[in-house]
Amino acid sequence: MTTTIRSISEEFQPLYGTKLRAHGVEHFDDGDELPEEYRDLLREVIRVQVDVEGVLLYHDWIKDWLDVAPQPRDRMRIAKLHAEELVHGYHFLKMYKQVDRELTAADFENDEGRKAQYIFSYSFDTWTDIALVNTLADRMGAFLFQDMADCSYLPWRRLSSRIAKDEWGHTSLGFGNLREICQTEEGKEEAQRLLYKWYPASLDMFGRSDSERQYAYVEWGLKRSLNEELRQAFAAQVNPLLDSLGLEVPPYTYNRQFL
Amino acid sequence: MSTGLGLDEQAIADLLKAVTSIAVVGASTNPGFASHRVTSYLVNEAGYTVHPVGAGGGEVAGRPLLPTLESVPGPLDVVYGFVLPPAAPDLAWRAVAVGARVLWLHEGIVSPEAEAQAAAAGLAFVANRSMEVEHRVGVAGERRVHFMPM
Fold first, then answer.
1. Could you tell me which CATH number the domain at A12-23+33-114+125-244 has?
2. I need a labelling partner for A249 at 20 to 30 A (CA). Which of A22, A27, A52, A113 fits?
3. pTM of the model
């Protein structure tokens, strides 16, 4: 299957920051009065991250990862990763309080109003699942936060830089683990089966290509890139890595929910 | 147009309460693999009559690993595949041939072609779902972890 890749940035990058400039500012800081549309967008982008990592402070869904780590070294590394995700979650909860309200355990009792993504409804059964999630979903996080590392909301800008650095570390750890798994034929076959599960879901994490809101994020300087542009950059980076392990990358549109 | 995804959650819960025998195709004796974990759950927790099918011999959850789907003894309700998506249509034909009532493809596996083949032969079809998760939620009454789609 071939995929047509077109450059979105050339067409839309002139939009970057246009609403900020119309407002007469270059950025906002904690305590500034935020325009209503800006606050809504900022709240949305933080809430998604709250529901990915902030929720881990209320539901310890990744502690089982320790039990499937095969070696003491792996347990240590995955525990460190876990700790960093909890730190991220804590910062996201604090940031959400700045732009909206303080969330409590009651907000995480059920899925109502939640913004997180379907990839996390898949089961994380095995060490190979975790290696692929770290390779793919954490890399997606690195792309996303890197894209916001110079965003117009200064507290989010500072946090994004730090989180992008951590996520690059997580994806590097995941790829190292995946490489070890793929050293046996049996391990490679399992990784290939599970790649069909995690690869499309990771692509979908970037959001819908036709999202209306993505343009407003660019206009307000909250994000640099549109969803499909970032998704294609992700695929361009990760596909050769998967190829290098002898894995066949699923077709770009296979089992995709958000094209 | 077929989505390749098959039944919805309520229909799946009803189905899981009605079936008794399951062939897990692509089962592995390696306890670190997804097929092994799910097979163990279906045997030890859910109480189904499970026939693991895979290469190399040995046992999974105390059940002998059978070499082919066609070597499964007795009537079969469900053929549950841990296969690569391109192999799903062939598995659909084989499920029809052995007289199964349901073709189920594990998480990450979707196939409109397999769904069409199953439907044409009157088989129920489920795809892109873990039978362990669906049993825990739909039969055992556990909460679905973690999130719903945006």
1. 1.20.1260.10
2. A52
3. 0.93
